[in-house]
Write a structure and sequence with these properties.
Layout: H1 3-17, E1 24-32, H2 39-49, E2 59-65, E3 67-70, E4 77-80, E5 96-98, E6 103-110
Parallel strand pairs: 1-2
Antiparallel strand pairs: 1-6, 3-4, 3-5
The structure holds zinc ion.
Length: about 110
């Protein structure tokens, strides 16, 4: 489960930016649907790792970001969730993707 490593990275980043805070109350993340990170595993891992840290009571908010696929044949744009998607309008394979590929720490609320 590589989500544990990903969760560790997020918390490390959060602790660094909240170095002067007494506690972290909220962590906001954007999770792309092509990031390869499973949302429930990630939540589970963060919740496990935040125990006994300044983030132990924090709420984790995850915004899911969809990937947009551009069809070079008919020019339409659509939300896709796989690398090998086909255009819903003309059925051509979609070769160009944008967004949805990452996981970002968006915001932190601290006290
Ligand atoms: Zn098309």
């Amino acid at each position: 489960m590589h989500e544990v490593g990903v969760a560790q990275e997020i918390l490390t980043k959060a602790f660094k930016s909240a170095a002067d805070a007494k506690k972290i109350t909220r962590i906001g993340l954007t999770l792309g649907n092509r990031s390869g990170v499973d949302r429930s595993s990630l939540e589970f891992a963060i919740n496990a790792l935040k125990e006994s840290t300044i983030a132990s009571e924090c709420v984790v908010e995850i915004i899911e970001e969809k990937t947009i696929g551009y069809c070079s044949d008919c020019g339409s744009e659509s939300y896709v969730d796989a690398f090998f998607a086909v255009c819903p309008r003309c059925n051509s394979p979609i070769l160009e993707y944008s967004g949805g590929g990452g996981l970002t720490l968006n915001y932190l609320d601290v006290e």
